[in-house]
Write a structure and sequence with these properties.
alpha+beta, 6-stranded antiparallel β-sheet
Length: about 550
């Protein structure tokens, strides 16, 4: 069993270093401008939000009163919550210097009030992370915090529309995805629910239980996000666990995917180094009028070399990479990184201190980042200690297809069980929605770093032009499928996007009664369904998960 790597716990009571305060001060200057989103992300990183959110803290400093907006020196012990911008009113005197129109604040929640402390070194005397003696790991406490907060947000705002509630669930599922669970997950808990054949039982035990599940995800249950997962041992069973009852979560060991490749020995060898240096040097002497054209030509030369190694998509690296500095108008600065699982976008040329360098454009899906981050790696052993690649993407997509098939098989077995047709309609739809949610998580997982675009090879599909999508029922569209004597033939669909959407669940008229037989589910046969969009031809394809043969990130323009 492999324990997920928890976020670093601070040993020092003083959380923020001088460098942290410097970064926060610089980012505060950008609030209220076009770079507002970048500024908040920079502040959250410098303020160690990933480590303190949901944790008990003690803050001594000036908090702003919600009554008259005055500032009061207070010592508050509570739970660290969100960071949000606060407008600075110049007519209200502050006991510290204010240089900006807006300033980021840290919310500390207590049982009585919420306190908002401006994130400024002069406004805050100290911030301490209080020790937690519960024995519950940090990542579990973080998920508990998110579950409580989302429940509160939904209740206060009376959020009932499906789209908004799904966005809230996606937020906590993003936190869950920080835990690697490709091979399954074990949850240690003191209480849980198990649903078998539509019948739900509450199980409470003095002795903690250990549940082994796969495809975990959060769903709404009784106006609160709860963790649901399929039982590894019983495909008809679904576990439902409230985070308040979770004591620990660990991923189940799986075989390591792909073997690492030293890219300095293969892609970025001595011949490449010589070519890259020569091109970068020549670029420095190109006239400004010809610069764009020559730059594109040289970049293509480097990318042609990179294309000779299509198996290398994901990289891991240790060393100094050039990254945009939000405090210096996104000027590139060297930043030390130790990264596993980044994606190569291609080659390019970057300018640093009036000198050109050939660099790899890399996308990082970091745990502490709210959105993917682009950095530039100069493949030079003087800057990069380790640069490794692995052919993980093809295997990842293969695993995704296998997971879709598993989900389809499980769903099919459920709808072919007579117990399913004894349930009321709302419970029937809830069962089908669970499998739909599981399939949606699979698609979201392969689209986290970059949206899936490429080829979807299928054995059957239905097709509608985009302008008829809302005018014609999918039930009136004929099924195109591979004939038994044409088993070699496959349908290769251009996929500019993949969405899990079952019209038999989501577009079901309220006048319909309980589902009485599988014949009423002629489009899906009870399993999750994909909508594949061919944007170029404005066509939409309806594909059952079991009919998906393979996925690949081919160039969509080459797919006919």
């Amino acid at each position: 069993m492999e324990r997920p790597k928890p976020n670093t716990e601070f040993n020092s009571p003083e959380l923020f270093s001088d460098e942290d305060w410097r970064r926060i001060a610089g980012a505060n200057l950008l609030l209220g401008e076009e770079n507002d989103e970048i500024a908040i992300a920079e502040i959250e990183q410098a303020a160690h939000v990933g480590d303190i959110e949901g944790e008990k803290v003690r803050v001594v400093g000036y908090s702003r009163s919600e009554e008259d907006y005055s500032y009061r020196l207070q010592s508050v012990e509570g739970v660290a919550d969100l960071i949000s911008p606060m407008e600075i009113d110049p007519e209200i005197s502050a006991p510290f210097a204010t240089y900006t129109k807006e300033m980021a604040t840290l919310c500390v929640r207590t049982s009585q009030n919420d306190y908002y402390f401006p994130l400024d070194k002069q406004a805050i005397v100290s911030i301490e992370l209080l020790s937690d003696d519960s024995g519950v790991p940090r990542y579990v406490r973080k998920l508990r915090h998110y579950a409580d907060k989302i429940k509160e947000v939904a209740g206060v705002g009376d959020i009932q529309d499906a789209e908004s509630r799904q966005l809230l669930i996606d937020e906590i599922n993003d936190v869950l995805n920080e835990i690697p669970y490709d091979g399954g997950i074990q949850v240690k808990c003191q209480a849980y629910k198990v649903k078998i054949d539509g019948r739900e039982n509450n199980i409470e035990d003095v002795n903690p239980a250990v549940l082994s599940g796969w495809l975990p995800s959060f769903t709404w249950r009784d106006d609160r996000p709860v963790l649901e997962m399929f039982d590894i041992k019983n495909r008809f069973a679904t576990f439902c666990v409230d985070m308040k009852d979770v004591l620990d979560m660990v991923s189940i060991d799986k075989e390591e995917i792909g073997a690492s490749i030293d890219l300095f020995e293969t892609v970025f060898n001595d011949d490449f180094q010589e070519t890259a240096w020569q091109l970068a040097t020549d670029l420095s002497y190109v006239d400004e009028s010809e610069f764009d054209e020559v730059s594109r030509e040289y970049t293509q030369t480097l990318n042609d070399h990179l294309s000779e190694f299509p198996e290398v998509v994901d990289v891991s690296l240790t060393g100094f990479a050039l990254a945009p500095d939000a405090t210096k108008n996104n000027e590139l600065q060297y930043e030390f990184m130790d990264i596993s699982g980044a994606y190569i976008d291609g080659m390019c040329f970057v300018s640093y201190h009036d000198k050109f360098y050939a660099a790899i454009e890399v996308t990082i899906d970091g745990e502490s980042e709210d959105f993917p981050k682009k950095v530039y790696v100069i493949p030079d052993r003087d800057k990069i200690i380790r640069l490794e690649g692995f052919d993980g993407e093809a295997e990842e997509l293969k695993m995704a297809v296998n997971e879709l098939h598993k989900i389809a098989n499980f769903a099919s077995e459920v709808v072919n069980d007579e117990c399913f047709y004894k349930l009321p309609l709302n419970e029937q739809l809830d069962v089908l929605s669970q499998y739909e949610c599981a399939a949606r998580n699979v698609i979201q997982d392969i689209s986290r770093v970059r949206e899936f675009k490429g080829e979807c090879v299928v054995s059957a599909y239905r097709c509608l032009p985009g302008d008829l999508l809302n005018a014609v029922s999918w039930n009136d569209v004929p099924l195109e499928e591979v004939r038994s004597h044409e088993y070699v033939e496959k349908f290769a669909l251009r996929a500019d996007s993949l969405v899990v959407w079952n019209p038999e669940i989501n577009d079901r008229p309220d006048v319909y009664g309980r589902i009485l037989s599988v014949s009423e589910l002629s489009l899906s046969c009870g399993e999750p369904v994909l909508i594949v969009n061919n944007a170029e031809e404005n066509k939409y394809y309806l594909v059952r998960c079991s009919d998906v043969i393979s996925l690949s990130r081919n160039d969509p323009s080459t797919i006919s």
